[in-house]
Amino acid sequence: MDEGYDDFYDKYKEKIDQEFSSDYFESQETKLTSKEYLEFREQHKPTQFAWYEKGCNIAEKIIKISPDKKKKQEIQDSIEFCHMNVTPTGVVSFSILFPIIYILLGSFVSLIITSVLLGEGSMFLIIFFLLSGIVMIFPLTNLPFIIANNWRLKASNQMVLCIFYIVSYMRHTSNLELAVKFTSDHIDPPLSLDLKKVLWNVETEKYESIQESLSAYLKSWEKTNRDFVEAMHLIESSLYEPSEQRRIEALEKSLSLILSETYEKMLHYAHDLKSPITMLHMLGIILPILGLVLLPLVISFMENIRWYHISLLYNVALPIGVYYMGKMILSKRPSGYGETEIAENPNYKKFKNILVRVGETEIAIPPLIICFMIFFVFAGIGLTPVILHKFDTTEDKSFDIIVDSRGNLKTIQTFAESKDAKISFLGYKKSKADSTKIIGPFGLGATIFSMFITLAVGLSIGIYYKLTTKKLIKIRDKSKTLESGFASALFQLGNRIGEGIPAEIAFSKVAELEKGTPAGDFFSYVSINISKFGYGVKKAIFDDQNGAIQKFPSELIGSSMKIFIESAKKGPMIASQALINISIYIKEMHKVDERLKDLMAEIISSMNSQINFLTPAISGIVIGITSMLTLIITKLGQQISDLSSGDAMGGLGGAGSLIDMFGDSVPTYYFQIIVGIYVVQIIYILTVLVNSIQNGVDRLSEKNMIGKTITKSILLYSVIATVIMMIFNMIAGVVMSGFGL
Question: If you average pLDDT over each of 126-130, 167-171, 291-295, 453-457, which comes out highest?
Answer without folding.
Answer: 453-457
